[in-house]
Each structure stands twice: as C-alpha cells, then as structure tokens.
Specification:
about 30% helix; alpha/beta; ten-stranded mixed sheet
C-alpha cells in the first residue's frame, strides 16, 4: 500500500472540493490554493511520490494540468475529459497514464467501442479506468459527469473482472464521502481488495492516520490510497510530511 498524491483542478485553480456537490454552478470548496499545479507537482517529485493523479474538474484546467505534468514527467496520471483525440497531448507532456470515465461510460452504460478505441489510442499499459461510485439502494454504482450521473453498472466483482483486462489500474473515488473527512467507504476498499485484478487506488473520506490504517487492514496492504482535504498542504490537520514518510513507498 502506498500514498498517491493528488492535484484537483477546478476553474483553473488547485482546489479541494466536496465531491458530491460539483455541478454546472460550481461546488462546495474546502480549500482554494494560491499556488499553481506545478508547485504541487514539484513537491511530489521532491518527495519521490509516484502514481498520483491530476484531475481536471470541468473546463479551464488544461494549461494547469500540462504545467504540472511537465514539472514531474512520468510521475503523475491525468484525467478529466480525456478521449482518444486529446490523450496523446497529455502523455507527451509527461503523464504516465490517462484516466478515463465518461468516454467509456456513455449514456449511462459501458461503450465497448469507446473502450476499445481508447485502448488502441494509448495502450492498455497507459490507461487507468476511473470507477468512481456512489451508493444507491445499498449497492455501489459507477457515476460519471462530475459524479452526478448514475450509470447502469454496479461496482462489483463482475465489473472489476470485466474491465481489468482493458487497463493498467483502477482509480475509485467514493464520491459520497469525497472531501467530507467523515470516514472511508469500507465496503468499497474491501471489494477492491477481494476482486480487483489490477492495481487499485481508493479515494474518499480519509480524516486521519487511523483511516489510512483501516484501508491497510481492509485492503490487506494491497490497495493504494489518496487523501486530499485532510492534508495540511490543503488546509487540513493531517501532516503531509508524515503521510509521505510513512506511506510514500510500496
């Protein structure tokens, strides 16, 4: 298990938001940084943290994402509006992987044609599928369009097995708790640990070191994690330096 850092971009700024509130009108913000994305990319590079992600939440974030990738070539992944036409630009700028959700889940269901086109465009080895989810009727469903639209696809063992052959990794935000610092969605971590055929990273709800240790326990030390709003570099109380030192390496 290791710590995967993040850079969330909204309206051209590095922010931490409450995930379920993101819509056309904006979002509830936990933190808005005065520093650009390249600052955080340089920080993660200096700490030797790998496999983190840059997420472009809506339009107006492309330039910030590209500057961060150039600051830390090969060190971070990028997602948000990625498709076969624009993926090459981000890979050439230094992204290790591109992260895709909406392009694959079209009109609420998996588009096999789009998934195959994405794999042909970037290669399975450079593709991360974002299977971010929300809970409905005691089950977890994959969501798209800034986590507002439910698809017809459950996050379950069958889906993980089905999609694992088309990507290098999964990234899963538990969107109902994203940015709320109220604890993790333990069943999601347990599901990934038991059934993911590829490396997986979990994000959502982490408050403290106890939550991280719970992920380690539930995930049998095999599920990576991302924490944002709780970190002191984003206005929280959890020490970034401590998390990096304890969990920065496999």
């Amino acid at each position: 298990m290791k710590f995967r850092p993040c850079i969330d971009l909204h309206e051209g700024k590095v922010k931490q938001i409450v995930g379920g509130t993101l819509n056309d009108s904006g979002a509830t913000e936990n933190y808005v940084s005065t520093r650009g994305a390249a600052f955080y990319a340089a920080l993660y590079r200096e700490k030797g943290l790998t496999g983190g992600h840059i997420i472009m939440l809506g339009p107006g974030n492309r330039e910030q994402a590209l500057t961060a990738l150039r600051e830390y070539p090969g060190g971070m992944q990028v997602g948000g509006g990625i498709n076969p036409e624009n993926a090459a630009e981000f890979l050439e700028a230094g992204a290790s992987h591109v992260i895709v959700t909406s392009w694959v889940f079209r009109d609420g269901r998996i588009s096999r044609d789009n998934l195959e086109a994405m794999v042909r465009s970037v290669g399975r080895e450079n593709l991360v599928l974002d299977l971010s989810c929300r809970k409905r009727d005691d089950e977890y469903w994959i969501v798209t369009d800034r986590w507002q639209k439910f698809t017809d696809t459950k996050l379950d063992a069958e889906t993980l097995a089905d999609l694992g052959g088309s990507c290098d990794e999964f990234l899963v935000h538990a969107a109902d708790v994203e940015g709320r610092q109220q604890g993790i969605e333990a069943p999601v971590v347990d599901l990934l640990s038991g059934f993911s055929p590829v490396p997986s990273a979990y994000a959502g709800g982490i408050r403290n070191l106890e939550d991280i240790e719970l992920i380690s326990s539930l995930g049998r030390n095999g599920i990576d994690f991302t924490v944002g709003s709780a970190l002191d570099i984003f206005g929280g109380a959890l020490s970034f330096d401590e998390v990096s030192a304890r969990y920065g390496k496999d």
